Amino acid sequence: MKLPPEFFLRSDVLTVARELLGKVLITHIDGVITAGRIIETEAYLAPDDRACHAFGNRRTNRTEVMFWQGGHAYVYLCYGIHHLFNVVTGFENEAHAVLIRALEPLEGVEMMRERRFKGKKRSDALLANGPGALSQAMGLHTRLTGTNMLLPHSPVWIEDRGLSAGEIIAGPRIGVDYAGECALWPWRFLVDSQQSTVDSP
DNA sequence: CAAACGATCGGCT
DNA sequence: GCCGATCGTTTGC
To answer: pLDDT digits over A4-60, tens only?
Structure first.
């Protein structure tokens, strides 16, 4: 059920990013379980990817966990507001990561609504429809960076529950226009919501 | 030490 | 569709 080390210990981060679609991201935080089916990812791959924080394999305090072996969490603050959650992949000293960009909520939806909307009325479609949004809904925070998701009782982990990803669409990554030609690489993956997936009639 | 910069979101026009 | 929020990280002087 919980993904094994071998899933993350692969150098081909593009394949891992694709295969994460349909898997289930789970947190156990503040005594509550929340879970969602991963429906959008992006791959980041040092050293040649200008959009990757570890471009050129440069190590900084922030990006150090990207160099750890696959299965750790890399969470960083974006635009001073948003906590973005990544899965570190590959072997030690390979700075590869997959950004989780969207989820389909499965469990703990009440808690997700509370964290996201604080009682205000909003559409459930907005619960986890972006990388900052899903982190807020799931309780993911920069303090969780460096968490080993493979350890028992970790606060965040990923499971295979046999759900299908369906058809997969690939395209350029979002918000990395500064990265030159790297911004054009089709390293964003999302499930085709036009296609039938888990429970269509 | 100062300053620019985001792997975004939500509110407003 | 545009724009401001907001702050840790990084880089430059």
So the answer is: 999 999 999 999 999 999 999 999 999 999 999 999 999 999 999 999 999 999 999
Domain boundaries, position A95 = 5-191
In a domain, A24, yes or no: yes
C1' (B6) to CA (A79) span, angstroms: 5
Q: Which amino acid is at A73?
A: A
Domain-embedded: residue A198: no
Kindly list the distances between the CA atom of residue A65 and the CA atoms of A39, A70, A143, A148, A170, in Å, as whole numbers in the listed order. 24, 10, 12, 10, 27
The domain that contains A154 carries what CATH number?
Answer: 3.10.300.10
CA of A19 to C1' of B5 (A): 32
Q: Considering the entire predicted model, what is its pTM?
A: 0.95
